[in-house]
Amino acid sequence: MRQQIDCAVLVLEAHATWMPQTLEVAQAGLARVRLHHLDWEAGQDLEVAEDQLIHLPVHAIAQASVSLRRFDVCLLPVSIDSLGWTRQALAAIPRGPFLPIVGIFRDLKSAAMQDLLELGLADFVRLPLCPDEFRARLLATVARVPRMGSLRESDHPGQAAWLQAIGILPAIEHASVRPTSMPEPPKFMPRRNLGGRPIRTAVQRHATESGQNLNTPSLLAATRSFRDAKAALIERFEKDYLERALERAQGNIAMAARASNKHRRAFWALMRKYEIDAEQYRVEDL
Question: Which of 16, 47, 60, 271 matches a 20 to 30 Å C-alpha distance to 264?
Answer without folding.
Answer: 60
